[in-house]
Amino acid sequence: MPSRHAPARDKRRMILDAAIRVFARRGFYACRVSDVADEAGVAYGLVYHYFDSKEEILNTLFTERWQLMLDAISAIDEQQVPARDKLYMIASFIIDSYRHEPELMKVIIVEVTRAANSFGRHHLDKIGEAYAMIADIVESAQRDGSFKADMSAYFAAMCFYGAIEQLLSAWIFDLLPQSEGDLEHAKSLVVETICGGLEEAGAGAPAVSG
Questions:
Q1: pLDDT tens for residues 129-145?
Q2: CATH code for 59-198?
Q3: Alpha-carbon distances, residue 110 vs 16, 17, 106, 153 (angstroms)
Q4: Which ranges in the chain belong to alpha helices (H)?
Q5: Which residues make beta-bridge pairs with 199?
Q6: Structural domain spans, the chain
Q7: 8-50, which class in CATH?
Q8: Using CB atoms within 10 A of its CB, is residue 171 exposed (0-12), middle (13-18) or buried (19+)?
Q9: Which residues have a Cβ under 8 Å from the Cβ of 173 and sit 6 or more positions away?
Q10: Is the pTM of this model over 0.70?
Q11: What is the dihedral of CA 210, 96, 188, 137, to 10 degrees?
Q12: Residue 87 near residue 197, CB atoms below 8 Å
């Protein structure tokens, strides 16, 4: 059991990590704050010292993870490489996030981004930021002639992210095999599927790997 004398920051992190496990295992709506406290090995009241509600806990988990992805997309877009390679790196980041933190990604997808009538609606602006950043990558490729100019860049970005999210959902619900090889292959498969429809004839090239 974690030490009750851990620094405040560690206790807050401990509560968040416990919430990930509980939300992933039981579902957000089936859990109570006391379940999170029990999982974290802390007093019930301590959870309320850091968070007003279990909704705030979920919002915090989403905001932290989503900002990491936005920062990653921004850093990737700054690289001087073709758009196809940028999209591959974004796909790699998201799929690797699932590989390393499957419970957290399950919570983010099932309880937030796919919860259109509840948490997803509250975070539409933040979710839209990711689409817009990916759309900027597509638009840049349209300007240099490597992607077709007659397609909506934002629609293409939604299709790209949607394809990855659907893959993650399939892994979460055990609808597709998810060996290390399957996860690696999926990165190229998503990029090939989306870029194959975006690229001008003869513009395609294998995405970087490794």
A1: 999 999 999 999 999 99
A2: 1.10.357.10
A3: 17, 17, 6, 26
A4: 8-26, 33-40, 44-50, 54-77, 83-100, 102-107, 119-122, 124-143, 153-172, 180-198
A5: 147
A6: 8-50, 59-198
A7: mainly alpha
A8: buried
A9: none
A10: yes
A11: -100
A12: no
